[in-house]
UniProtKB/TrEMBL annotation:
Residues 274-519 form the Aminoacyl-transfer RNA synthetases class-II family profile domain. This is Phenylalanine--tRNA ligase alpha subunit. It comes from Halobellus rarus. Its cofactor is Mg(2+). The gene is pheS. Tetramer of two alpha and two beta subunits.
Length: 531
């Protein structure tokens, strides 16, 4: 087998039985660590080496920690001074003890806090009492500090002069098995020292390398240095060897790692396609506020104010001032429709109706609020038939998250105003729309909405599970909706779920695979829609 020189050196230095760190391998192979690291990974890719990663934790004394190694912990100094002042016999004036303990500035607070915490004594109305039996000699924090300092000094100068102390299970840096100083110190003591800012904790990844069976076999069969080199190394540059070597030719057919560029999310692709289709069918786009007055979200739709969907269970209410600008005539008309009904035989709800509630702001639970705004003439003026409007926008519902429900999702809202519309027009529109997405068996089920009559739910068959899933809701707006708005023609309308459409076109079985924090990236990368 022929390999580039650094790989040959690393392979020869590696062992099948002993785990070696990359630094150690680099040293034995006479390579710079970065050259060795690269060679290690190349050899791993060729399955000649195994690389194992372990997290190691290192502790380093801070400047403050080092200062206490010599001077003693402030609380220990305070205790000694207290004993000398006889505070184990009877309480002593605190100021006297502090003075004698030679504590300055911030050390005073540190000493007092830890003195109490460790039960060295008590402080009461300016007097300090010491517990004569306290054993400051074996204070775990003090003992640990000294042990860590000794270990760090022992190491210093041997390697890189780093005064680091490593946690258990690490066999590098010198290798000689001394007892691990950190292993004897309990985790809670280490945590305490870190939180007192006497120790710094560093986490790092240590990679250890062993030969694989294939690596051993390769070595036994003989590994030679390839005559050509495939890259420049720092060593070649430093020695000038680069001038004499022959470089390997590029293999433009070699496998390369897969590079994934960004792509438009399937939901966005679906939304864009929906817009294209609807514009192609003669629709114009609506827009409007995500947070809107309940008036537009519900009252205009003849939704009684005590309807369950309007309770705090389903609604995301917002703690903001109520809406001010509502057309007064419209407010009156809507109130009248709710209380008394419309037309000659209209009846209304005869239930209380509060304008304050109507003006309160919430996140919209459907984009039918936009349809109300547009139909009322407040957005683009009064509209003469025929008119077609749509939106593909986000709505918010306090639902329970599951395979078919999200708390935020996109609705494909739409309506058509014309003279003499029938249910056939409504159904025909959906058939034409869904055909553009390859969905040819839309099914209709009679339904009830307070604002449409008749109403229909739409269902589509899931391509992989074969189950019928609900994909939309629709109907012809009632007079109780249209009359207050001043609309004198028929209006058919709908709200379709964009995510459900995407489930049918991508085969996603769980809506959460499509978007949100739980989205399945592999699924999304592979999801292909041919819109
Ligand atoms: N607002 C309805 C959809 C709908 C809109 C317009 C008319 C009829 C139904 C929903 O969210 O389910």
């Amino acid at each position: 087998m022929k390999l580039p020189e650094p790989q040959v050196a690393v392979l020869n230095a590696a062992s099948a039985t002993e785990e070696l760190s990359i630094d150690r391998l680099a040293e034995e192979a006479g390579l710079k660590p970065e050259t060795a690291t690269q060679a290690v990974f190349e050899l791993r890719d060729e399955r000649l080496l195994d690389v194992e990663e372990t997290e190691s934790v290192e502790y380093e004394l801070t400047e403050e920690g080092r200062a206490y190694v010599d001077a003693g912990l402030p609380e220990v100094r305070l205790y000694r001074a207290a004993i000398e002042a006889g505070a184990d016999e009877e309480p002593v004036q605190m100021g006297r003890v502090i003075g004698a303990a030679d504590l300055d500035g911030p050390e005073v607070d540190i000493a007092l806090a830890n003195f109490g915490r460790k039960g060295y004594g008590t402080i009461d109305s300016g007097e300090l009492a010491a517990d004569g039996d306290a054993d400051t000699e074996s204070d775990p924090e003090a003992v640990a500090l000294v042990a860590l300092a000794n270990a760090a000094n022992g190491d210093a100068g041997v390697d890189d002069g780093d005064a680091d102390v490593e946690d258990a299970g690490d066999a590098e840096n010198g290798g000689e098995s001394e007892t691990d100083p950190v292993a004897d110190v309990g985790d809670d003591v280490l945590d305490q020292l870190v939180s007192r800012n006497l120790l710094d904790r560093h986490e790092r990844t240590v990679r250890t390398v062993t030969l694989t069976d294939a690596g051993v076999t390769a070595l036994m069969e003989g590994v030679e240095t390839a005559e050509t080199v495939d890259r420049l190394t720092p060593e070649m540059l430093a020695s000038g060897e680069w001038q004499d070597v022959e470089f390997t030719e590029y293999n433009v057919e070699a496998d390369a790692p897969e590079v994934r560029g960004g792509k438009t999310h399937v939901l966005r692709q679906t939304a864009d396609r929906v817009k294209d289709v609807l514009v192609g069918m003669g629709f114009q786009e609506m827009d409007g506020p995500h947070a809107d007055a309940d008036f537009w979200i519900n009252d205009c739709l003849f939704m009684p104010q005590d309807h369950p969907a309007r309770t705090h269970w389903d609604r995301f209410a917002l703690d903001v001032p109520p809406i001010e600008d509502l057309p007064e005539d419209l407010v009156d008309n809507v109130e009248r429709a709710h209380r008394e009904g419309v037309g000659e035989d209209g009846d209304g709800y005869h239930s209380p109706w509060s304008e304050d509630f109507a003006r309160a702001i919430a996140l919209r639970g459907h984009t039918t609020s936009l349809s109300m705004r547009y139909l009322s003439g407040t957005q683009v003026g009064d509209l003469e038939p025929p008119q077609r409007y749509f939106s593909v926008e986000k709505v918010y519902r306090n639902d329970t998250l599951d395979a078919t429900h999200l708390l935020e999702f996109f609705q494909i809202e739409g309506w058509v105003m014309a003279e003499n519309l029938s249910v056939r027009d409504l159904m025909g529109t959906f058939v034409e729309f869904y055909e553009q997405f390859g969905i040819t068996d839309v099914q209709f089920k009679p339904h009830y909405n307070p604002y449409t009559e008749p109403s229909f739910e739409l269902f589509g068959r899931h391509p992989t599970t074969g189950e019928l899933i609900e994909i939309g809701n629709s109907g012809m707006f009632r007079d109780e909706v249209l009359e207050p708005l001043g609309v004198e023609h028929d209006v058919m309308a709908w709200g379709l779920a964009l995510e459900r459409l995407a489930m049918l076109t991508t085969g996603a079985e769980d809506i959460r695979d499509l978007h949100g924090t739980l989205a399945d990236l592999d699924f999304l990368r592979g999801a292909e829609v041919t819109y």
